[in-house]
Specification:
It comes from Actinacidiphila reveromycinica. Residues 323-353 are annotated as: Disordered. This is Putative LacI family transcriptional regulator. By secondary structure, the protein is an alpha/beta fold. Helix content is 41%, strand content 15%. The chain folds into 3 domains: 3-46, 434 Repressor (Amino-terminal Domain) (Orthogonal Bundle), CATH 1.10.260; 60-163 and 295-324, Rossmann fold (3-Layer(aba) Sandwich); 165-294, Response regulator (Rossmann fold). Strands 2-1-3-4-5-11 form a 6-stranded parallel sheet, sandwiched between helices. Strands 7-6-8-9-10-12 form a 6-stranded mixed sheet, sandwiched between helices. Helix 7 links the parallel strand 3 (122-125) and strand 4 (145-148). Helix 8 (165-178) packs parallel to helix 9.
């Protein structure tokens, strides 16, 4: 089927069919509906190659995949990528994955190469961090982009969608306080990480809101279970040991599990543990891990929505969207027993076989 055949079927010009496909706001409602019926009746599909040559648009969105260390929580990004790809497809775009180098200069060179080759129309950024030069670099060149994550700098540039980590850890503290805990430690990432500092802020502000101490109750480790196992030791030992730990990732929470078992203690029964990410492993651990579920499917769809709007309206004001995570309560965050230890309870939802 060709565009001319659709025009003949609808009784309009070929230009009118082109407008219906590319600029539907130019047509009267009745004309647009007639053209769309003809397209549907003939099962007409525009040639993407021809459209790209005509419009100089590839309909491709670039997404750089950065190397990451093995982690219990990396699989959560699969949900984001699937939602991003699916929503982009519905909007008439495809996501082009490319290997993002570690160095900032090398990464910007890769972005520049993709633009020079006219391979992409826009970018989705992730792994944003303090000092990230990509948003300003793209904004200066007026390249449409949206970031999964805030820029974490005084000069916030461009559109972004992010998960409200502070809200999540505050919700975890509220849950643990309601369960009877008063000494609630935080196992976070080293200071300087934008998202890590944000999650730590939520814990600290919630503790202060409840009138609970925070001094000496924060420890940090890289996102590695073995490092977490060692780092959490000061929170578990001594007369003033904590009765609960909020970890800023499920990987760190796994380290807490190992540290407790190393001491002959049981997560949930002796010390409550809450993770962050709700990775597939969270429900499979024994006891199952309470964790904060990130709405990554919604993040992916929102990234596409904001990016398509930016492509169509390059001068529009920046849009920012902060989405709250949801606490999934499982066995590891039990109510406190009168004797000071915890009592495990089971999430009523069925656990995976």
């Amino acid at each position: 089927m060709t565009l001319a055949m659709v025009a003949q079927r609808a009784g309009v010009s070929a230009q009118t069919v082109s407008n219906a496909l590319n600029s539907p706001d130019l047509l009267a409602g009745e004309t647009l509906e007639r053209v769309r019926r003809a397209i549907a009746d003939l099962d007409y599909r525009p040639s993407q190659a021809a459209r790209s040559l005509r419009t100089r648009s590839s309909r491709l969105i670039g997404y750089g995949v950065a190397p990451t260390p093995p982690s219990i929580s990396t699989s959560v990004l699969d949900r984001f990528l699937h939602a991003l790809s699916d929503s982009a497809d519905s909007a008439g775009y495809r996501v082009l994955l490319f290997a993002a180098p570690v160095g900032a200069d090398d990464e910007q060179e890769r972005y520049d190469q993709l633009l020079r080759d006219h391979s992409v129309d826009a970018f989705v950024l992730s792994n944003t961090h303090r000092g990230d030069r990509r948003p300003a670099w793209l904004a200066k060149r007026e390249i449409p982009f949206v970031a999964f994550g805030r820029s974490w700098s005084a000069r916030d540039v461009g559109d972004w969608v992010d998960v409200d980590g502070a809200h999540g850890t505050a919700e975890a503290v509220d849950h643990l306080v309601a369960a009877g805990h008063r000494r609630i430690g935080l196992l976070g990432w080293p200071r300087g990480s934008g998202s890590g500092d944000d999650r730590a802020r939520g814990w600290r502000e919630a503790m202060e809101r409840h009138g609970l101490p925070v001094r000496g109750l924060r420890q940090a480790a890289e996102d590695d279970a073995q490092a977490a196992q060692q780092a959490v030791a000061p929170l578990l030992d001594g007369a003033n040991a904590v009765t609960a730990v909020v970890a800023v990732s499920d990987t760190l929470a796994l380290g807490v599990y190992r540290a407790l078992r190393e001491r002959g203690r049981t997560p949930g029964t002796d010390v409550a543990v809450v993770g962050f990410d709700d990775s597939p492993a969270a429900a499979l651990l024994s006891p199952s891990l309470s964790s904060l579920h990130q709405p990554l499917e919604e993040v992916g769809r929102a990234c596409t929505r904001l990016l398509v709007h930016r492509i169509a309206h390059p001068r529009a004001d920046p849009q920012r969207l902060l989405l709250p995570p949801e606490l999934v309560v499982r066995e590891s965050s039990a109510p406190r027993r009168p004797d000071g230890a915890g009592t495990a309870h089971t999430d009523p939802r069925p656990r995976p076989e």
